[in-house]
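Tutorial, part two.
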Amino acid sequence: MKCLSRQDIEAIAARVVNAYIRLPELQGKPLYRIEPERLLQNVLGLNIDYHHLSMDNSVLGLTSVTALGVEVYENDDTPIIYYLDGKTVLIEDDLRTDTTQHGRCNFTIAHEGSHQIFKMLYPREYGGNAQSPKVHFYRVNSEKNKPISDWEEWQANALASAILLPKDLVMQGMYLFSLGEKIKMLNKVYAPRVYEQFKGLAEFLGVSKTALAIRMKQFGLIEQDYLDNPYRLTDVLCDGGV
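Running the prediction step on this input gives:
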């Protein structure tokens, strides 16, 4: 595996986004968000297919840069073998059909596409071979694993985030949703108006609230983040932390 810095990953994302912007069908139109299906198919030349990928819903997406068969499931949970061709990503079908999972679906597509991008750029390190084929699985909450145990998956997460949420589009969205230059406190309970604007921005950009909050913190656009636990602010106050 090639060890890439966050700066390296941001540079790769910028190249991919620039290629996306130059797509003929987008010329002369305002750009508000990155649509990962369009990007994978029309920029990267990849295929996307949807199936049930696990019995316990723990697998959200998978891909391989080499040809091999993987087990997927029919709607009645009957296992079948799906033959990957080295340029296809499989996405859990429930993500597509559940409208509340739109952001997670988009991130999963971008994550699996990122594995393919690394293979295109670094075929020696990521190309794989027929003797030792590898399947890249994107699992539920894998991005929250601390400490990081799989740097290849971390790199795919970082690239997916950078592609879906380039700084220019995030800041443009903040202006459109009247969020100003920075969110001072993201808190559903104690700052509900800002929270609703932020929630609307996440839906507008086609990502989850968590993904957007992480990216905005990387840009220094959120000062205090209480997205996961809005009552943590009360705990801090009671403990004399402020």
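The radius of gyration is 19 Å. In part three we will examine how such features are distributed along the chain.
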